[in-house]
Every structure is written in C-alpha cells, then in structure tokens.
Amino acid sequence: MTLDAFPRVSLCVLPTPLVRASRLEAALGPASPRVWIKRDDLTGLALGGNKARKLEYLVAGAQGEDATVLITEGAVQSNHARMTAAAANAAGLRAALVLDAANGDAVAGNLLLDHLLGADVHIVPNPGDRPAKMTQVAENLRKRGERPYVVPTGGSVPLGALGYVAAVRELMVQLAALGESPVALYHATGSMGTQAGLVVGARVFAAPFEVRGISVSHPAGAKPAVGAALASDTAALMGLDDSFAESDVLVDGGYVGTAYGHLTPGCTEAINLLARTEGIFLDPVYSGKAMAGLIDHIRIGRVQPGDSVVFLHTGGAPAIFAHGPALLA
Ligand SMILES: Cc1ncc(COP(=O)(O)O)c(C=O)c1O
C-alpha cells in the first residue's frame, strides 16, 4: 500500500521549514559542517512537535474504528500526551491521559496544557503503574458506553511511524531544491517510532544521510532492536518486501546523562546556544539532548567541516516552563 493510500487526518502545517543555522555554525567554529534544522517544532498542532505527524495516521485509525476517546500514557511532561489531547479535540474526540509523576507533578508546561485542553488526566506515581491504570481507565470508559482507542506510548506503532516515512519524502524535496546532500540526520530518540519511520523513509526514498538517533532514555542499548522491529513492521504495513536489522538503527546513548528527564550540562549548553544564536528554543528532555549529541559529534570529528547535516527539531518547548532558572547556563 503506498503512503498516500493510508487514511490520514490533516493536523499539521506542512511542509515544515528547513532552515540553515549559520549563526550556530559560526559559534561552533571552523570544525562545523553546514547545519540545517528541519523545524518539526513548527508542525502547527498545539505548539508543535514530532508527534503531530504520527497522530495524523493514528487519529485516522481511531476514526476507522469508530472510537470516541483516545487514551494514551507518558510522563507528566509528555509532549505526546499533550499533542494527543489536542489531536483528539481537533478531530471531535475526547482524550484520557495516564501520566506518571516520577519527575514531579507541577501543573506547569505540558501538564498545564493538558488541563487547558480539557483532557481527563490520571496521575500515577511511577512509569510502572501506567499499564494497569490504562486498562482500568479503558474499562471504565467502556462501561460508560465510550469506545476508547489506545494510542501506545509515544504513538510508536507502525501506523504512527508512517508519519516519519512521509517526513523523509518531504525533506528529500527540500534538499533537492537546495542542492544539499547531508551525510547525517540527527534527532532525539525515545520510544523509537520517529527513528523507525525515518529509517524506512531513508531507504524507500534513497536518502543520502545516515539517521543518527540520540537517545534520551536508558537503556539505550536495547533501542536498535526495538527500532529495527518497528521499522520492519512499518515496511510490512506498507506492503514492502524489506526488513531491517539492529545495525540499520544507529542510536548513540552517550548523552542521556543520569536518567530520562534529568538535565545534563551539554543539554543546558545546547538550549542556551540555540536560543542565543538562532532564536530557536530546544527542550530539556529531548531536543536539547539531541543537539548536545550533534554538537559533541562536531567537536570530536564524527562529522566533518565541508559536510552538511540535518538536525530534526522534534519540538518539546512547553517543558521549558516546568524547569525554571535551572535551564540558564
Ligand atoms: C519533543 C520530542 N522529541 C523526540 C521524541 C522522541 O520520539 P519517539 O518517541 O518517536 O522516539 C519525543 C517523544 O515523546 C518528543 O516529545
């Protein structure tokens, strides 16, 4: 089945811009490659971010099953949860969110937006408590005559990953117009749906670049296997006779720091540098760590001056407002 044959609800403003970060390049000095930023923080749905592309296919899936409510889960500052609630509203559905308070439960940032969006928010103490709560919330909804549709963690299922297969097609058109042939695309990788879609898209559309995921959570070592399985399943959903191995899914686990959601010095540096050179906000959980990875790869020579790279900005800025002055370098 070709990409365009899948039902899709329009939630994003596409194409997102691809912009040259020349002031960042100047700040990084002569070692810097040309850096292009793919602004998926500007996808347009409820303050933007990568999940909007996945949700275009997932909401269509929910509508196909005649669902009335989307249920999903994440951390209290989950961008995915905020965007799922917004997508539900835009599609005339309701949203129930199961969020864990392992990193705090202040009603700020994404959690504040979840409430503004009118989502039915359920807070549990730890990530491990989420599955049971999801089941309980779904059961209660069914008893009330609702038809819940579960959007798995991060929207990272083959249907959601299609959003990033399509994103590669979009990016290839932009790169061709610029005459650019980047060696690598960097992005924050968590539940692996974004990376799986990118890896499939890179193969299908013969992209010149390697997809390099910078992990935002431990254990990073398990991610290539998860990503390869998801990429293979995404290709199968598209009817492609293609499979992916762990070696096709490049994940660098060196920039997580102590844990998911915990700031690192590199992340703080990246957030401040992008704001001060380009006027672009990164976030403390995802895109800041991914940019910290790219900056370090430039400094240690993993990419060369004269090359070009793409940084996929996956969004996440609402979490800035849950952190406060700790973010200032
Ligand atoms: C801002 C941001 N960037 C990157 C990611 C990682 O995407 P994925 O879960 O598809 O790996 C997420 C996931 O929540 C996110 O919110």
What do these coordinates show?
By secondary structure, this protein is an alpha/beta fold. The chain folds into 2 domains: 3-49 and 156-327, 3-Layer(aba) Sandwich (Rossmann fold); 52-155, Rossmann fold (3-Layer(aba) Sandwich), CATH 3.40.50.1100. The chain contains 10 helices and 10 strands. It has helices at 22-28, 51-64, 79-90, 109-116, 130-143, 158-178, 193-204, 223-237, 265-278, 287-299; strands at 18-20, 34-39, 69-75, 94-100, 120-124, 148-150, 184-189, 210-215, 250-252, 308-313. Strands 1-2-10-7-8-9 form a 6-stranded mixed sheet, sandwiched between helices. It has a 4-stranded parallel sheet with strand order 5-4-3-6, with helices on both faces. Helix 2 (51-64) crosses helix 6 (158-178) and helix 6 crosses helix 7 (193-204). The longest helix has 21 residues, at 158-178. The termini are far apart. The structure holds pyridoxal-5'-phosphate (PLP).
Write the layout of secondary structure elements.
Blueprint: E1 18-20, H1 22-28, E2 34-39, H2 51-64, E3 69-75, H3 79-90, E4 94-100, H4 109-116, E5 120-124, H5 130-143, E6 148-150, H6 158-178, E7 184-189, H7 193-204, E8 210-215, H8 223-237, E9 250-252, H9 265-278, H10 287-299, E10 308-313
Parallel strand pairs: 2-10, 3-4, 3-6, 4-5, 7-8, 7-10, 8-9
Antiparallel strand pairs: 1-2
Helix pairs in contact: 1-9, 2-3, 2-6, 3-4, 6-7, 6-8, 7-8, 9-10
The chain binds pyridoxal-5'-phosphate.
